């Protein structure tokens, strides 16, 4: 699944970028990729097996990659593909150690104080501006704004995890967020600019689209889904838990599950 769909589909979509533009099917890619990412992330939350968690994470990342293709940013999708390969390799190699050292715990209740919210918002916005500057995207109101939004959310989430960590001092909480997101964004920007340079002779691999009403509506749905996950609202709906658990099971007629009579 990892090599066939994630790596293969990203390369194929980039190669056929002109065909996708000509057939006006990018919005379909955007919606399919976004739904895949949201559903896979929800499904990951209820898994108890580390391999199933990793599989759901890979499916979600595949969805993000397809969503970037749907935004007309095929070069960003290829960068995502490469970086995800390194990240997922680390997760697979460290999964055994993670299982050994972790014990089941009650889910943490998400609370944030006003000052913490201001710090998270500040670093999120600062990270978004740095991302736009280093990648040369600018602040134009096109489909690239969705990538900027995801970067802002990611930086904000990392900042929140740091400011809520009780073992860190006040100085460390103020020092670590900019160090982490600046180094991370610089690394991404170098990779992004390098891949863009390698793909310069391929037509329409970095062509942001004008923002449409469908993209705005789905962006709102995406944000709502993200906060539902982070706030743990899904735990209050047993039917949603059962539904996600069922759709995450292997299909009963696959080679591994099918039993001939």
From TrEMBL:
Membrane topology: Multi-pass membrane protein
Principal subcellular localization: membrane
Organism field: Litoribaculum gwangyangense
The entry's keywords: Membrane, Transmembrane, Transmembrane helix
Matching InterPro entries: ND/Mrp_TM, NU5C-like
UniProt xrefs under PANTHER family: INORGANIC CARBON TRANSPORTER SUBUNIT DABB-RELATED, NADH-UBIQUINONE OXIDOREDUCTASE CHAIN 5
Pfam families recorded: Proton_antipo_M (PF00361)
Protein name in UniProt: NADH:quinone oxidoreductase/Mrp antiporter transmembrane domain-containing protein
Domain NADH:quinone oxidoreductase/Mrp antiporter transmembrane per the UniProt entry, residue ranges: 7-155
Transmembrane annotation, as ranges: 12-39, 59-83, 115-134, 140-162, 174-191, 211-233
Compartment(s) where it occurs, according to its Swiss-Prot or TrEMBL record: Endomembrane system; Membrane
């Amino acid at each position: 699944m990892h090599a066939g769909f994630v790596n293969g589909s990203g390369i194929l979509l980039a190669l056929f970028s002109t065909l996708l533009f000509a057939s006006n099917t990018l919005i379909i890619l955007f919606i399919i990729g976004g739904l895949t990412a949201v559903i896979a992330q929800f499904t990951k939350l209820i898994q108890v097996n580390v391999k199933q968690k990793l599989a759901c994470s890979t499916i979600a990342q595949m969805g993000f990659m397809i969503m970037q293709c749907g935004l007309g940013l095929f070069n960003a999708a290829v960068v995502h593909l490469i970086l995800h390969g390194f990240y997922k390799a680390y997760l697979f190699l460290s999964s055994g150690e993670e299982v050994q050292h972790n014990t089941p715990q009650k889910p943490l209740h998400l609370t944030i104080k006003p000052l913490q919210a201001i710090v998270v918002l500040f670093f999120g916005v600062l990270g978004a501006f740095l991302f736009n500057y280093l990648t040369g995207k600018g602040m134009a109101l096109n489909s690239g704004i969705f990538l900027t939004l995801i970067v802002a959310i990611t930086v904000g989430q990392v900042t929140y995890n740091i400011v809520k960590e009780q073992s860190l001092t006040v100085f460390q909480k103020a020092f670590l967020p900019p160090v982490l997101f600046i180094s991370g964004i610089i690394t991404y920007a170098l990779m992004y600019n390098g891949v863009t340079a390698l793909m310069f002779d391929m037509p329409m691999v970095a062509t942001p689209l004008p923002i449409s009403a469908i993209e705005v509506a789905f962006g709102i749905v995406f944000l709502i889904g993200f906060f539902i996950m982070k706030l743990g609202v899904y735990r209050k709906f047993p039917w949603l838990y059962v539904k996600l658990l069922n759709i995450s099971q292997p299909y009963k007629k696959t080679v591994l599950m099918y039993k001939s009579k």
